[in-house]
Write a structure and sequence with these properties.
Layout: E1 8-12, E2 23-31, E3 38-41, E4 44-45, E5 51-54, E6 57-60, E7 64-65, E8 68-71, E9 81-84, E10 89-95, H1 110-120, H2 124-138, E11 153-159, E12 164-170, E13 173-179, E14 183-186, E15 198-199, H3 203-209, H4 221-225, H5 232-247, H6 254-261, E16 295-306, E17 310-317, E18 325-329, H7 336-339, H8 350-361, H9 365-396, H10 399-434, H11 445-455
Antiparallel strand pairs: 1-2, 1-14, 2-16, 3-8, 4-7, 5-6, 8-9, 9-10, 10-11, 11-12, 12-13, 13-15, 16-17, 17-18
Helix pairs in contact: 1-2, 8-10, 9-10
């Protein structure tokens, strides 16, 4: 099996934001056909002694959980990225340390740790402490795929309106760094080296006991703990690409973050995609699978803060280069088509409609993607114009009216997205038929046939 390594997460501090606030963006890359809709779970109080069923295990529940909005792979408890009603936003990454094979017990799934951090933490630091406490008590490395075995450790970017933290873990150990300015990104490679603010008490001693550093060498977490294996040769260039693009912008906004997380090295004369980005020959920030047992971008989230509203989110389902960034907000029920998706194709799910569009584009990406992108950009412009007006009204409104304004906005934009996904899919399908295409063919035919089989999706 191919290693399930993917995802990229970026934090932007307020001094580098055009909106003068902390921001986070992430592409969540997951196994093919793993639907990942947005879902909202309201705050709740719980009885003493209550148990919580998470992915594959139960743990004690706490007395109160905050309301959480998250991008949730359909089969698990946890989120790939999300926010809570207190203003905390978290994204995670898969990691592999030299200690990965030491743990003999499957602990808490990394995405579950993320959601638990949101449910139980009112600030970024509180959420970090929640994750560390659960990690040290239960461990991690639970299977992260519904299709095959995939076990890994995790790193996290955790932000609130005042602070940004990077938390990286290895087994039950951890290291954390406070980001005070600029931009910082994590990927499927450790990023914290010699400078950090928090760590397991025996972090350095454990590395030295195992001979992971020379006797006179200064402690470097990433160098000491990162496991040597082939997938790192794919992960590190992608992490460097996000780092490069994010540092080329003085003040980030929605447009600049969309550009980064839709990236396929288009402006690079050496690495620009060959035969279209959807071939998956080169792991890019916006990831397309090369084979059925490799990962693809399942969702992309950009989040920041707006006075009078709180966390504002823009999320694109499936590969963002073939999709639309839609609006959502903490504390407000989502339109049904945005929140629903299961393990097989359904026309009732906006995630699946977008995924079907991405797959028919993938028959010949170079031919079909430019037109789809042009029309997507026009619709996103319409959406942001509607959002500018509605968010301004909502920020000044009382709580109940605010919810009504923002829900109506989400519903309008979800309908636009549904219409876009259906019409673009139909247009490409008719164009293929006019060209004499009766069944899946071309260089991606085998992949698309397998994809259609696994997801029960009719692509043509």
């Amino acid at each position: 099996m191919a290693e399930l390594l993917s995802c990229d997460t970026l934090a932007v501090a307020a001094d580098s934001s055009a909106y003068h606030c902390n921001m986070m963006a992430k592409n969540s890359d997951r196994p093919i056909g793993e639907a990942q809709p947005l879902q909202w779970f309201p705050a709740a109080d719980h009885m003493e002694g209550e148990e919580l069923a998470i992915t594959g295990m139960t743990i004690p529940q706490v007395s109160h959980t905050y309301g959480v909005l998250g991008s949730k792979p359909y089969w698990m408890y946890g989120f790939e990225m999300g926010a809570n009603d207190q203003g905390v936003i978290i994204g995670n990454e898969a990691e592999n340390s030299r200690d990965k094979d030491v743990e003999t017990v499957e602990g808490i799934l990394g995405m579950d740790l993320l959601r638990l951090g949101l449910e139980r933490g009112a600030t970024a630091r509180e959420s970090l402490d929640v994750i560390v406490s659960l990690l040290t008590q239960y461990g991690q490395l639970r299977n992260a795929s519904a299709l095959y075995q995939s076990h890994y450790e995790n790193s996290f970017i955790i932000i609130d309106p005042k602070e940004i933290w990077i938390l990286e873990t290895a087994g039950r150990r951890y290291v954390a760094k406070w980001v005070q300015s600029g931009v910082a990104n994590i990927g499927n490679c450790y990023t914290i080296e010699k400078e950090f603010d928090l760590a397991s008490p025996d972090l350095e001693a454990h590395a030295r006991e195992n001979g992971w550093l020379l006797p006179d060498e200064a402690f470097n977490f990433s160098k000491a703990y990162m496991k040597d294996f082939a997938a790192q040769t794919l992960a590190i260039p992608r992490w460097r690409r996000v780092r490069q693009l994010s540092r080329n912008v003085a003040k980030h906004d929605l447009a600049s973050l969309k550009r980064i997380f839709r990236d396929h090295y288009e402006d690079d004369p050496v690495l620009s995609p060959r035969y279209g980005a959807s071939t998956g020959y080169l792991p890019t920030v916006c990831r397309h699978a090369l084979q059925w047992d490799m990962s693809q971008t399942g969702s992309s989230m950009i989040a920041w803060y707006r006075e009078g509203i709180g966390v504002v989110v823009r999320e694109a389902y499936t590969q963002p280069c073939c999709s639309l960034y839609l609006l959502s907000y903490t504390g407000i029920l989502l339109p049904e088509k945005m929140a629903y998706a299961e393990g097989q194709f359904s026309e009732k799910s906006l995630w699946w409609l977008m995924d079907r569009l991405a797959k028919i584009i993938g028959i010949d990406y170079d031919r079909f993607a430019p037109g789809v992108k042009e029309r997507a950009n026009a619709i996103e412009t319409e959406i942001e114009e509607l959002a500018a007006d509605a968010e301004m009204k909502a920020a000044r409104a009382e709580e109940q009216e605010k919810k009504q304004i923002l829900f109506a906005l989400m519903e309008t934009c979800a309908k636009k997205a549904e219409k876009f996904a259906i019409e673009e899919y139909g247009r490409i399908k008719e164009e293929l038929k006019a060209a004499g295409v009766q069944e899946l063919c071309g260089p991606r035919a085998d992949f698309l046939k397998k994809y259609a089989e696994v997801t029960k999706m009719e692509i043509l």
